[in-house]
Amino acid sequence: MRIGIFGGSFNPIHNGHVNLGRAMLRKAQLDEVWYMVSPQNPLKAQSTELAPEDVRLRLTQAALEREPQLKACDYEFHLPRPSYTWNTLQHLRHDYPDNDFVLIIGGDNWERFDRWAHHEEILREYEIAVYPRSGEEVRKPPKDAKKVMVYNLPLFPVSSTEVRQMIRKGDDLSKIVPDAVVTEMEKYSFYR
């Protein structure tokens, strides 16, 4: 199977994340997209706004419960921290040798990809699917890259930061966050 690995904090997951996974299934011809909930991003400072990993996983599971090809994944919870993508990909390759893994990243991450641990090895050994923001220029991959594809997708114009701000203000989230996520957040007062 071709599995897209879509890593992130998902703090919280929103409709943009879900729509992106659906679009990547078609565009990159993937069998599944695994939403790799990251316990700790090595390129981001530890934020006091970062919800506990089990909360973010639970909300991601709720968002994807009716999406059979989109899977919430706690795989990185069981690996050394911080969560380096190279380490995750190597473990996945070992544990699932019959699958091909495609790394899904935003244009912003592609621009700073040379700061990632083992970025040269990732480029040589794994296919990368890049989704830039509208109008964003994407630099060309190095010649020795295995395969880097750029997919111009209609992106949802909201961030998890904006969602958290809306929650604090008591704004209506029904159009930007899956209903199941809103229900879970209200039930347990997540992000309040």
Q: Could you walk me through the main structural features you see in this protein, from its secondary elements to its overall organization?
A:
The protein has 192 residues and is of the alpha/beta class. Helices cover 35% and strands 17% of the residues. The chain has seven helices and six strands; from the N terminus they run βαβαβαβααββαα. A six-stranded parallel sheet has the order 3-2-1-4-5-6, sandwiched between helices. Strand 1 (2-8), helix 1 and strand 2 (32-37) form a beta-alpha-beta unit. The chain starts with a strand and ends with a helix.
Question: What would the keywords be for this entry?
Answer:
alpha/beta, 17% strand, 192 residues, 6 strands, 7 helices
